[in-house]
Amino acid sequence: MAAACASQAKRLLVDPFPLSFPLVEAGSLVIDGGIEGQPWARDGVVNFRTRDGSVVAVVASSQAVLARSPSGPSLAEPSRSPEGLVLLRDDDVLRAVGPNGRPVWEFRAEGAIRADPVQHAGRVYFGDSERMFYCLAAATGKVKWRRRLQGAPLHPAAVRGGTVVVAASNSVVYRLSRRGGSILSWESVPSRVVYEPALAGSLVLVSSATPAVVAVDLRSGKRAGQYEASGPLVAGAVWSPPYVVLFVEDADSGRQRLVFLSSR
């Protein structure tokens, strides 16, 4: 019986939608109004904000609009842990506030903190304009480790397993050890990483200032593939299994559309 349960648990760990390259277009949807900010995906629904303030929800499986509302949650909500700890950044200072609204700790970085911190498994990860990347204990704000990079971290880090992925201003994606901050590997991308990277199974999707989306393998740090969109990207790619969703603008008409990509 125990062996059977263990076997079943092992099978459940298999990714039902493994992403592999090359990718092919599996559909598209024209956007009514330009995209503002970074889209996000949850439970098979892709959400994005338009320039008029509306929040649009699109069902990935049917590639159809589910709802359009005049307002929605802010895309810049403070980072909150399961314990209710809220992180607030102000130039070079990061403050932690408890669920009762009282200050818990304060940390001053070497430079301005441009991107939201990420909380994961009792730690806080973020970078500053002086090219320093930090890992703090979420409960106390004490430094667990810090690492100076060759470029300034531009976006919230992506954390999975024992790896922290950091997109930096020198057009490099760093893969750091979550335990001690050592640089495990780095990968150059075609241009400046202007959009937030997205986790997609064992890959991280990196959208740059070019129409290219690069996938980096979290396990090896090597490039796993690249897709060239038909026009400039207006937001970072998102992963809504089994689709990679791009937000592409037509260079001639200026119209924007969602492009759904799947493994061949």
Task: Describe the structure concisely for a colleague.
The protein has 264 residues and is mainly beta.
How would you describe this structure to a colleague?
The chain is mostly beta strands. Helix content is 4%, strand content 49%. The strands form six sheets. A four-stranded antiparallel sheet has the order 1-24-23-22, with no helix packed on it. A four-stranded antiparallel sheet has the order 2-3-4-5, with no helix packed on it. The chain has a four-stranded antiparallel sheet with strand order 6-7-8-9, with no helix packed on it.
Strand and helix layout:
Blueprint: H1 2-12, E1 23-30, E2 35-42, E3 45-50, E4 55-59, E5 64-69, E6 79-80, E7 86-90, E8 93-97, E9 103-108, E10 118-120, E11 123-127, E12 132-137, E13 143-148, E14 158-160, E15 163-168, E16 172-177, E17 183-188, E18 198-200, E19 203-207, E20 212-217, E21 223-228, E22 238-240, E23 243-249, E24 256-263
Antiparallel strand pairs: 1-24, 2-3, 3-4, 4-5, 6-7, 7-8, 8-9, 10-11, 11-12, 12-13, 14-15, 15-16, 16-17, 18-19, 19-20, 20-21, 22-23, 23-24
